[in-house]
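In response to a reviewer's request, we include the raw inputs and outputs for one of the modeled complexes. The three entities were modeled together in a single run.
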Amino acid sequence: MQVFIQTLVNGLVTGCLYALIALGYTMVYGVLKLLNFAHGDVYMVGAYIGYFVIQWFGGPNHLSIPVPLLIVFMLVIAGLGTGVLGVAIERFAYRPLRDAPRIAPLITALGVSFVLENTVLLLFGGFQRSYNTTDFISDTNGIHIAGAHIDSVEIMIVVLTAVLCYGLVQLVDRTTLGKSMRAVASDREAAEMLGINVDRTIALTFFIGSVMAGVAGVMSGLEFQTISATIGFLAGLKAFTAAVVGGIGSITGAVFGGIFIGMCEAFSLSYISEKYSDLIVFGILIATMLIRPTGIFGRRALQKV
Amino acid sequence: MKVRISLVAMALTALVAAGCGSSKSSSSTTSAAASSATSSTAAASSSGSGSCTASIAIEGPFTGPVAQVGLEQLHFAQLAVADDNAANHTNVTLAQDDTQLTPSLAVSKTQSIVASNAVASIGPAGSQEVEAVGPIFGKAGMAFVSGSATLPALATSGKNPTFFRVVPDDDIQGPQDANYVVNHLHTKGVLIIDDDEAYSQGLVNVMIPVLKKAGIAVDHETLNGTDTGATLAAAIKSLVTSHLSAEDGVAMLPWQTATSAQMFGQDAKQAGKKVILFGTDGTNSPSQFNIPGTYVSSFGPDIAGSTNPLDQAIVKGVAKYGPYGPFGVPTYEAADVVMKAIASVCKSGGTPSRSNVLAALKQTNIPANANPLGVPVAFASNGDLAGNNGYLFKINSAGKYIEIPPK
Amino acid sequence: MPQIGVDEWVAQSGERRDQGTGWRRVLYELDTRVAWWQRLALAALLGVAFGLTTNNVNLLTVGFTCLLYAILSLGLNIAAGWSGLLDLGYIAFVGFGAYGYALFSSTALGTGGSGGVHLAAFISIPIVMIAGGLVGVLIGLVALRLEGDYLAIVTLFVGQAFVEIVNNVDPGTLGGVNGIYSLDSLHGFSGNVSTPRGLYFVALIVVAVLAWLLHLLDTSRTGRAWRALRDDPLAASAMTIPVNKLKVMAFSFSAAIGALGGALFAAQQGSVFPTNFTESILILIFACLVLGGAGSIAGAIAGGIIVWALEQMLASPTDAGYLFYGLILLTLFLRIRPLWKFFAVLAGIIVFGFVAHAIVGAISSSATAGHPGSSGWIGSAVKNWVIVPHDAIGYGNILFILVIVLVLALIRVEGTARLLLVVPTVYLAACCWESRLIVNPAITTQIMLGVILIVTMAARPNGLLGTRRVEVV
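The model returned the following structure tokens for the whole complex.
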């Protein structure tokens, strides 16, 4: 029982991180029909920014400010930093390709991914850095359920994901910006003709999506402690998978997809063999896609002729 | 359409240019670069007596998921080349070849090394890469020395006639570690996890029989070593959650990343599971893996705390290139061995070539106090290190590595 | 970007081209007058000449790998280029071919490291291709239910699943993590082909034959149907084009060619390992295809050759230096018009550099005490031009970020300000290159590759040899 609950918790936490990254993917895809493979590396940059914020305030053992304030600083600075990075990437790398065939921005995204990853490698070296979270956040507080343990960082992750997801849904459904996003996603030329500032809407979409990725980076640094220049690519792939499985373009779908994948991974790792767990997860996901070809929450687009 | 032909022409030109370029410079020199990075040995290394000039290459994963390991090895090799150039008045230049730990890239880099005028090579880092490139080096008669490939078959299969290594292979290290667990750690059950890579599986295959023979219950699990970030962390957490049981007094982690071992230990502590960790040399990293009560085996002593002037010079010297990490020390020695072989060829009046450097390498005999590994360095006829240099450390309550007898 | 215009403007695009003059016109004339088979023969002739005249073993090996990537791009082109199916699992077909060849040419199927099946290449490679085609049919059947990015995801899984399978399943036969090595080289019934020159010619013949066959396919009904499928599947099916059958065909052809490429790859390497077939190689093949021009045979071939040649050039610091300075000069030349302005800017950069070096050198001698990273004539030429301090790492890092910011700023400003900004930007970029980037050639290779991809895609979104689309609004 303890193993079951602990596995559940593990899956939920990892799933929430995938979900946060997947949110950025799905927003950008919805608006631009672009698979932004550089998104995972934006997440990695966020993790590094969080690391440097900790060092700036004295390092994990000699913090000069209280921990809650530190966390707020990390989230805000990393979020803003990655947001600006995302907007810059869109402005300089993707804007020239707005009307290009879909396969071209894919390669640009890969190019951006190479540049980001290797710039970090160049500037900060290959040495894996550690947040050393346990030095300033004790991992024994938290709650215990039936022998399973959920520490404070994990609770923070789940709560933050829920809040951000709710906030994002409200943004898209209720605000003008959200309406612009939906309009641009639906028909960009028509939206432009109706007076919506398409460039600004797309830039804001990228900003919000990248902020999510940056926050996910900081959270994953706090939770898993080790960061290196190469954590972005695999995380990006997983998030992309989550966005698609959940139904690309749907926010709740992305969150659900992320948690679904996190759970599948955790349960197959714990209960079935570690060796074949990846294959099992792939099998589950392929089966899901075959049963629901447009993703779990995806809407079957009716094509008008 | 208009520029189609011109572009095809450009493509072909690029190919030809690449070829011309790489033919004369695939052993391209980074001597200037090395000397711009070093300060005190700059004058000596680049203005060596000039009569003993040669070029060597180093292969390793300098980008990609294991860039940390590769860059560490590169920095130590660069330091060894600079130090030995100064000490022996030679003028050897070191070219870098990035393999990203992928055997196919290692093969293509090896082919360009062989086509260049390099006389010897250092690395590659992984056992699979050695398997792939061994015959190529062998056919060219070019020696290559690895500081980290430990698969026993590499030396015994006969397919890699010019292969040398300065570290003991798994057949020595594995049983030594397993016997220590049996004799000193008195546990009923052991959880042993391999990371699905050749290094890890090789060690596990020799450790499990030793443990089983002593009547210990062995739980063998696998971790996907190519995962990174959140996926890797989730996998490690699941291992702790579902496979670490109360009977497992010891968890053996023959991994290549110290940070993963640290994650495992912290997860275990957080879950309230008491377990003694036993890591192998791949996890030996005082700054990254420092859970008190852990045992870590190694190929070499921890020179960071040594008072030996050579060791201190190495620890200080590598700072010019990058941070210190124990994984690099064997590669320092591998480079050192090659440099000394070249110097001895020059001293006996010859010009360094592949065949005489290979012959000189076979005669290597460096006493223990002249190299950082702490044991005499000499090679058996199949390229294995003659002699055994297994070391064991225990991490004390302050997180420091204390050397203890390995048997 | 596609040029957008109304009907008449579009209709007159041919006229506008015909009235052009100068070197563009000459090239265009050549292009239209020379038939496809003449172009193929010309390219093949160039390839043969290259293969016969060079004695440099390294060049021949590089040539072989370039042609190999051309083959792999051609295979991917059928699925992703012609049919618009985003196949992110293509590398599984390549791996399948490689492992298939390995099983038929080594001791893997034998017992205890001996025996095994050792088929001649004439037999094993066609078998592997047909098997690959069948696997492609299987994947195609799965793909029928999925569209666009959903298809991409499932194919991605297949690609990753392949690596997992060969890594974990049946290590006795498939070798597990340690792979299968000591493969036979390509051999017929008597001789074998193992020299670099021989392998190069085998690859050249394969590329030429493939290009010819694929051209026949492209101009056939199937090719046209594939293009219809790519542009608008709904309209295609409304025109009674058998969309499902075509999708399956696309996958199976793509897989067969991928398997062929994989088999050649295994034969040349002499070994197969699971880690040879990860996403990084897939990314490279996609870059080859899209850079060259997805949907065009010449584009796929050119892309394969160019990308691998770039990788080789970038890996050696001297060549990377040529490429770096060469590309900067080329960009300036192409973008600054008229010509006198280009020379003025060039002169400005040179003068600025010497002046800066002199000033900084006078202020602090340690700031210019380092050596430029480039060797040879470039190194001596720039020694008194770039500022390379004693301890270059931190300085180089800061410069790197500064150069990136300046380049982005360059894109935003216009006119004279832009020309003025170019001078310090280029100079600082050269300083950064000499002091920092060239010290870590492996990392610099990846960065430059990424930058080349970004810039090329921005300049020519349809790839180098792809067709420009003119859209009617």
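As requested, we also summarize the result in words. Confidence is low (pLDDT under 50) at residues 1-49 of chain B. The domain at 29-168+307-370 of chain B is CATH 3.40.50.2300 (Rossmann fold).
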